[in-house]
Design a protein that fits this description.
- By secondary structure, the protein is α/β, with parallel strands linked by helices.
- The protein has 12 helices and 8 strands.
- The strands form 2 sheets. It has a 6-stranded parallel sheet with strand order 2-1-3-4-8-7, with helices on both faces.
- Helix 2 crosses helix 12.
- Bound molecules: thiamine diphosphate and magnesium ion (MG).
Length: about 325
Amino acid sequence: MPESLASADKDASFAAYREMLRIRRFEEAAARAYTQGKISGFLHLYIGQEAIAVGTALAMRPKDRVVTTYRDHGFALALGSEPGQCMAEMFGKATGLVGGVGGSMHFFDRDRGLWGGYAIVGNHLPVAAGHAFASKYKQDGAVTLCFLGDGAVGIGPAHEAMTLAGLWKLPVVYVVENNRYSMGTPLSRTLPVEDITLRAPGYGIAADRFVVTDPFQVRDRVSEAMDRARKGEGATLIEVLTYRFRGHSMSDPAKYRGPGELDSFRSQDPLEATRAALAERHAIPESELEALDDTVSDEMDAAIRFADASPQPDPEHRFRNIYVEN
Ligand SMILES: Cc1ncc(C[n+]2csc(CCOP(=O)(O)OP(=O)(O)O)c2C)c(N)n1
Ligand SMILES: [Mg+2]
């Protein structure tokens, strides 16, 4: 058992496991709704990567921000967004997080620190640099956390953003969620160098790299980078080696995986590791863990019912929130 998990107390472990389980059950419910035709457009699931969002939420303070990709449901839930509002957003309903006009890829919940899911690969890194620049300028003490995929690091704006982050010592942490694939393409076919953090010295920013084991490890490693940012010591590039258990999106059967690959990563699932710690180290009986699963599943069923019963947006809503004035 990793030290980070072994040293976490029972209540914290239970709470973190519950949050990860909520994300997993939410994603499974969304996948079912998608196959029933209730969700249009793309749907990218976060199953397998939950510990990253949950650990990050544990590291954040009230004014800190998350800017992320289209694989954004896990961050919304970890930061406290209502599952019903998240589901309704995907159903295109008026009660959704952004009134049903954003969909799965464009969650936004400013009051909870989620400053957007972005669909254009790599183009949100400069947005994060902008947020961090504003924090430095206003001296508000906040840190911006920007999550990106392994497929984003070769995109032009990623380079521009990290250059400025280094040059201006911005309070930003770039976290690559390296889930080994960008769509169906393995990292070895998109990048000449395997270790993404080797780029960090070229930008004059700090680096960290680890295989994700559990949410407390993520909390601790992300906190270190956030502390540096808060002290004015500048940005960090973190590479978290993770894995997604489902296809890139719902339309991907994921036939590109090697033999035994999925099973091998499933045996390292941080959700299962956290569950095992609860059962073995904290002696929580199986019945209690099953009861928790039932409660969480009920919560997600209720989210589906809420989204189903919600009204369609007023057609005029599509013209709102385009300009600052309205
Ligand atoms: C600029 C741009 N190019 C291409 C796409 C199409 N596209 C969507 S997701 C994706 C793969 C990105 O993979 P990665 O960055 O590893 O993130 P992951 O999906 O694995 O979380 C691509 C190529 C896009 N959305 N934006
Ligand atoms: Mg990827």
